[in-house]
UniProtKB/TrEMBL annotation:
UniProt-recorded name of the protein: Cytochrome c oxidase assembly protein CtaG
Lineage per the UniProt record: Bacteria, Pseudomonadati, Pseudomonadota, Alphaproteobacteria, PS1 clade
Periplasmic-side positions: 35-213
Alphabetized UniProt keyword annotations: Cell inner membrane, Cell membrane, Copper, Membrane, Signal-anchor, Transmembrane, Transmembrane helix
Any one annotated GO CC term: plasma membrane
Family: Belongs to the COX11/CtaG family.
GO molecular function: copper ion binding
Localisation: Cell inner membrane
General function of this protein: Exerts its effect at some terminal stage of cytochrome c oxidase synthesis, probably by being involved in the insertion of the copper B into subunit I.
Gene designation per UniProt: ctaG
């Protein structure tokens, strides 16, 4: 009786399966850092509702008004207490607004943090301009220290010329604080992944990870 030979596995099939497994492992490893990485990506690129930085106040003010609300959150590794202003502000487009966030370090260590930011609705981010902000630099708090952190901003008058912005009456400005050590880990991971090659020797660029990943 003749024996049937076992079917041979295609090298291409093995390669495809291997690449798929590598992709799954890679994305699983990225899950821990996904949120802070996306926040930092948005901060750098202006994607996802991040705001603009202005050198000076607007020289044009129009009668149309917008309400600005404030929100504060922190990464789970950040022990600070971080709160937003309770009251929203209503201002004319082009008018300069000022708000104070508050941070408190309840620990017995001196800690440094970095704030990421965005606005909702996201489409309004392009027109939300900050003149000065605590988020532009790292913030260091001594043990038990509490600080008021200002942000000075205005809504660019060009928003009035954008038909897609006609329905925007309220904008929410949000900040998330991270420990400096956490952002350092993210930057290190970014550098490491950028130098590794997957698939057919292609370099992975962490900033190309889509929002839904």
């Amino acid at each position: 009786m003749s024996q049937q030979s076992s079917p041979k596995t295609s090298p291409n099939l093995n390669r495809t399966v291997g690449l798929c497994l590598a992709g799954v492992i890679f994305m699983g490893g990225m899950a821990y850092a996904a949120v802070p990485l996306y926040d930092l990506f948005c901060r750098v690129t202006g994607y996802g509702g991040t705001t603009n930085r202005a050198d000076a106040a607007s020289d044009t003010i129009i009668e149309r008004q917008v309400t600005v609300r404030f929100d504060a959150s922190r990464n789970r590794q950040m022990p600070w207490e971080f709160t937003a202003p309770d009251d929203a502000v209503r201002l004319k487009i082009g008018e300069t607004g000022l708000a104070f966030y508050k941070a408190h370090n309840p620990t017995d260590e001196t800690l440094t943090g970095t704030a990421t930011f965005n606005v909702t609705p996201q489409k309004a981010g392009y027109y939300f301009s900050k003149i000065d902000c605590f988020c532009f630099v790292e913030q260091t708090l001594a043990p038990g220290e509490t600080v008021d952190m200002p942000v000075t901003f205005f809504i660019d008058p060009e928003i009035a010329e954008d038909d897609e912005m006609k329905d925007v009456k309220t904008i929410t400005l949000s900040y998330t604080f991270f420990l400096k050590s956490e952002t350092s880990k993210i930057n290190l991971l970014e550098s490491k992944l950028a130098s590794e090659k997957v698939s057919n020797q292609a370099t992975v660029n962490i900033k190309q990870i889509p929002q839904g990943s």
